[in-house]
Amino acid sequence: MYSDLDPLLHSQLRLAIISMLVASEKIEFTHIKNETKAAAGNISIQIKKLEDAGYIHVEKTFKNNYPNTMLSITDKGIKAFESYVTNLKKYLYPKD
Questions:
Q1: Per-residue confidence of the chain (96 residues) as pLDDT tens digits?
Q2: What is the DSSP secondary structure assignment for residue 4, as one 8-state letter?
């Protein structure tokens, strides 16, 4: 039934991360943690899955001597998100 919905994006936390990136293009790890209230370890796991799929780019640097992780969405990630939303709309607004 839901086979046309990308299972990678169908996860609540991964969908939240991608949605934030679509809106902002680039965000810090701490912003995701503050917005989602998810555990840092869980966020890291979901980021890795999105990165492995080529949906996001992860850049690790230092900011004031502390590790800083910045995320940005790739073209592939944008296309996957747009496709997900289009397919989800089919369930929300079925043709009669």
A1: 556 889 899 899 999 999 999 999 799 999 999 999 999 999 999 999 999 999 999 999 898 888 889 999 999 999 999 999 998 888 888 874
A2: T
- pTM for this entry: 0.88
CATH number at residue 80: 1.10.10.10
Q: Is position 6 within any domain?
A: no
What Rg value do the Cα atoms of the chain yield, rounded? Answer: 14
Range of the domain at 55: 12-86
Q: Is 67 inside any structural domain?
A: yes
DSSP run (H or E) holding 58: strand 56-63
